[in-house]
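Predict both folds.
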Amino acid sequence: RSALWVFCDCADMARSGTEKPFILFLSLFFAIFACVAIVVLAVAAQTSPSSSSPSSPTSSEDKEEYTILVSLDGFRHDYFDIHPGKAPTLESFRRDGVYADRMVPIFPSKTFPNHWSIVTGLNAESHGIVANSFYDPVFDEEFHLWSTRAVRNASWWGGEPIWAAAEKSGLTTACYYWPGSEAPVGGVRPTYYKAFDGSVPLSTRVDGVLNWLALNKTARPSFVTLYMESVDHQGHSYGPFSNEVGEAMSEVDAALLRLNEGLRRQGIEEKTNLIIVSDHGMTDLSPNRVFFIDDYIDMKDVFIVDYWPVCHIRIRRGREGNVTLDELFEKLDGANPHIHAYMKNDLPARFHFRSNRRIAPLLLVADLGWVVSTRSNFNRNGVISGSHGFDNEDLDMGAIFTAKGPSFKQGGINIGTIRNLDLVNMMAAIMDIHPPPNNGTQQARMLALKNTE
């Protein structure tokens, strides 16, 4: 019986006058004591701390974090030394957080393969984006980075990007440009994304990211990508040592400052993990370092989509009776000490570039700074001033990695040399999600993050 019912019974006895005074006194005393005890316990229960209270250290409010992955296309790892003082904001990020001396791209060190590797953790042979332009013999189609139809077709893109893994885990994501983000890979797109438009100013891109992060918390993305290509464009046009590259560095640095100040104004700078990377480096080219492939083979016999630095050679359809791959190999092998001919299965194992049908059966791999071309193409277009795509271990191909935020170590920690394949595991750890299957290791996560347990 409850205490309330005890109190009512005793009051009735008092009114009846049939009980002795002492017994009545004791009954009333214990009834009043029980009621007081209930009131005290109820008040204590209402005022004691609760695990679901907003002030609890385990609340979702306290765990609120955002991750922004920014790509500065073509930003070589040693540009800080080549062009000193051109990126003060980025250098301040390095002093505040962690940075790598060099981040090693995958082979080939080109834009689309490496951007897709950064978000999937897969080598090119595993994710299938083997170049910026290539041919698929099963699709009987060519992929080109400038083709809207191709970049939005999910069948070209293998693996699972980190934003898809995050969306599947219940997080909201957004991409203000990133190769692959326009395609529904695995049936999943970022909640918010923009179709690439190179004419959009960097300031507009930054403001777009900030606008996403100013949305109501239920709609706000917790993972965002941002892409800037200025440094790469100037590196191609003028070479890595040009003043124009230094000016482009200042341009992207101003965009980073705008981003960081915007995060501060919105009160989320201290809650944001800012990861700045590039996809590859850059090296200078010369018209004196050109291998003319048509001096050695009949171009009517071959089908080539991408010439350099990795030249994919197939026998043209209908010309199979004119020449064999072995004959082509014999003509090209040793033709120039700076151009290396390989049958697909004989490529160095460290390239991880054998096991995909989109890799041609015969390839030429140019040494750093060398170009494969035809005489007609050379006479028509010449040679650009700078490029990439070479051996991913060449120092000139080295990329950047800098990060700061609540998940990262602080104080300008140099983590040495890392590989871009490892970033997906690091980002998954930050977001507390399972990473997609990948070829990476836990090195970047262990070196860069505060809590690596």
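Second protein follows, with its predicted structure tokens after the sequence.
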Amino acid sequence: MAGGAALTALLAVAVGLRLWRIGLGLPDFLEEAIPFRLALGMTDVATGRVDWNPHHFNYPSLATYLHFLVQQTVFGIGRLLGAYPSYADYLLSYSIDPTRMVVAARWVGVICDALAVVGVVRLGERFARGAGLLAGFLVATAPILITTSHSIFCDSVMGVLAVWALERMLAWHDQGRQRDLVLASVLVGLAAGAKYPAAVLLLPMAWLIWHRRGWAGFASWAALSGVALVAFVVSTPFALLDSRAFWRDVFFEGAHAAGGHLGSVGHRSFAFHLANLTTNVGWAGALLLLASPALAVVDGRRRPGLVALWIALLGFGAPIALARIDADRYLVPVILFAAPLAAISGWILLGRLPRPGRRFAMGLGLLFLMIPVSLRGVRTAGEGADTTQLQARRWCDAHVGRDELLVQEGYAARLPSSLQVQQVRSEALYRFASPRLRARLDSVRCFHVVALPLAVSGRITSRVEPPGLPPVVWEVFAHAGELNRVFYSPALLADADYVMTSGAVRGRFEADPSRYPVECELYRLLDAKAQVIARFAARGAVIGPEIVVYRIGPRYRDALARGSELDPRWWTEAIPPGYRRRAQELLAPRESATWSATDPAAASPPAWVRSLAGLYAMRIQPFVSDMANELAALGRNEPARAFARATLALRPDDLDAGVVYSVCSGRLGRWGEAREVTARLLAAGGDREAEPALILLHARALERTGDAAGAMRELERLVARVGAGDPVGAQARHMMDRLSAPGGRRG
């Protein structure tokens, strides 16, 4: 084992580099951080009951449970100190300023990396004295490991468990203690419980057992694989208890890797990962890594361990090289095994040099190997004094008015929307929080902001239900990214005041213009016809995607050459002709497949459009609803009606769209249209919780269209149902008093 002082210094470097910017990006928090977010949601704020089923298995559950333990510890300490009287306060505080929770979660990655450094040092020292410290230095300063430790993914957890699993395998191979092999099996299972690819570590275990015991060791390997499986199930128990959800998500992730991710659909990721690996171990390290197989051939004593390291490296590296996902963090376990291989190769080569020149060669080699990597690591660790997203947020605070609408791409600024705050206020989280925390939320500056949806992986399908036949699921888009063009129609942005683009999204579209022509055309239109009023780019210690803020003005709107309202059929233009024909022929071959252009909102959509109602409700309507509600809140009634009409054209009984349409129609004096829609919604049954407000709205429409008696009947029914003490009931009572007064009809 390496000297304690040297190892301590190495750990100080590793931890120091990772803690340098541990608050990166905060208080804004835009990361995926799936295990962290799942962990926060495991406790019911009303009852305190913990739901141990994460319900999502894109990743196994070990990291989720680990973050649950960390967050419960932070909450418990905060509760003792009086900061969080309840878990509702903790979650509401997180939604306002997540800094404490996120920093605690990032410590998990820092600690995992520190333990991984120790494990890599032990691996290297098994082959050559001094090689472990060099390998540990490469890991301590690797840029990808530094950034991943901040990102609250599963990779750091998997990486440390994988390193120690292989270290224990080599300990068994060297010394023959069975407990080392059993412990290695448990660590393999736990590593797979952090992230599925770690199951590949059973392969180097098989190699080492075969090398020591021959084919007679197969039964032992099978039994140890069973031990690993038990450890995996213990760490992810709902793989068995909720097997349907488990296999659903596992198959999705398999298809995701094969089909690709937005931005890397058209190519394998080999070149991307090779370039990143070279950057993280340096050119000298990459050359030493290439020399390692040859050294394994000629060095019989070290050959079994070197082969085991290579099996582990290739087991992690080959799948990500063949996949179509350019994600830096996927390289974490590869770097953890590449570093000791490169360091061991360097030490073996130095040992073959003549003794007189060996010390000089060692110093020169260390300079070539360590200096480039350390400089990149220090530069990476020091980045993030500010971010483009935070700069954009501050700009919005200073320049975006309370009566202005901003539409933004994902990975731009973190702007709390008025709709989001309203949603939180309607949830148990708000009801069970203390008055102090509720007051903090109520004081948050809200924006009228809508985010453009972003589909990045998987397929887009639709459930088609032909009459008299079993339902079938058909593919609409082979890749989910093809759906994004729906939200990049220039007409959708005509009634916004600002549009904010993010290079994290824009760069992916503009890198493949033939695949994403609609998105790229919108960017060209914005550049040509909208005013660029702010631009934030990474430079120096500022990191993040380039963010551009456009002001939408008359030049942009005049360039659209459109009518006065949004065409409700706009989203159907993206649907492939093949799906249209196939669905129409199955559902209604004798009906017209054309949707009337004269009044599409009044005409029934063709069968192929109706078959997409579920897809529309899940994928498109949330954006349409947000636009309609934000425009209505700003008093922009005509465009709000247009967005609501797009939903009503396909789903005429939709409550949210119907209410927005009716309220805005009433503001415009079109009470007849409001009456027609509210009557249809009430006849359809509607949402029982929202029905009182709908009845009140219908009563107003009846009054305004001359049916005061009908309005009175609706109001009496409403008051009898909710009572005059209810806010809606109180409004109904006031309206009844006014209608009952001599000459009373309007007010």
